[in-house]
């Protein structure tokens, strides 16, 4: 069967790239993006898929029965450490509420949502509000019973200065409500063949009469993915990183091998999600001479002690599992070869790891197919 999917806060089409990567024969119904450069990427790479623009203005009723899966990557800056973690006080955080309203209007669709782990410890319990709305409850979900004032627990931390309890949602879990069953899990891109630490929360919500999201996100104990390597954070070598960057078969120069030239260091930009990713920037929120692409977690750089260089947009695309030069497009009257780096860095940094998404979408495909095909057909086709 053909799964029909739509994306909101589409960015540079990580979900669409993941569908292609996974070899799924899905049909994109619509996209929703307002940022100029990502919109240009969508128009260039997927010209046949309509971009509906502002997700808050989409009339979901027009899409009832036409969407099987809605994929959303609502802006994470409202919940990230670098974004000052304003949560639902930030208009970007409030997009999660608009997302649930859109999903309710479409009715029968399942949801795949991605965000930073900081949402699990938002002071305003944004994650609990989101889960409660998805479940169809008339109250916010909470990670566990609140302890007494002034006390902490495995699910709540007491903030002495603000004199409030701050939630500590677990890295994985599930909730069932009258409207939907919801499961979530933190996944790290480094365990999916990508050469970066990029830990994100992935949430799947399905109608109560639909697929079981636990079967999508959770793995049986004997069939789990790669285990974390036996090493401490901070250990590693350029030789380990370079082959991953060159996964497409092209060669990669290893920094630290001078070959008679001046030494250089491969480096991400600072915590700059609104422009070119510059190195040694005053906006960088951590010490040291190197910055990072992912503003939520650390990313390694090879430091030679002399020069600093930032990773190229192509290298950043590889770290996200994208095709080389996916974001190299005609831009503002210029040909593709003159596309500036700044918007490319921003689009890539705000995107999702394609390989992680491909793994999840493959399991979504199996789950949605299983509930829509008779058991005899499933057996003949080897689905069950």
In summary, what is this structure?
The protein is α/β, with parallel strands linked by helices and 384 residues long.
Protein model, in words:
By secondary structure, the protein is α/β, with parallel strands linked by helices. The protein has a domain at 4-223 and 351-381: Rossmann fold. The chain has helices at residues 14-21, 36-45, 95-106, 126-135, 213-217, 238-245, 313-319, 341-349, 354-372, 375-381, and strands at 4-8, 27-28, 69-72, 110-115, 156-159, 164-167, 172-176, 180-188, 199-207, 266-267, 309-310. The strands form three sheets. It has a seven-stranded mixed β-sheet with strand order 2-1-3-4-9-8-7. The protein has a two-stranded antiparallel ribbon with strand order 5-6. β5 and β6 form a beta hairpin. The longest helix has 19 residues, at 354-372.
Secondary-structure topology with pairs:
Blueprint: E1 4-8, H1 14-21, E2 27-28, H2 36-45, E3 69-72, H3 95-106, E4 110-115, H4 126-135, E5 156-159, E6 164-167, E7 172-176, E8 180-188, E9 199-207, H5 213-217, H6 238-245, E10 266-267, E11 309-310, H7 313-319, H8 341-349, H9 354-372, H10 375-381
Parallel strand pairs: 1-2, 1-3, 3-4, 10-11
Antiparallel strand pairs: 4-9, 5-6, 7-8, 8-9
Helix pairs in contact: 1-9
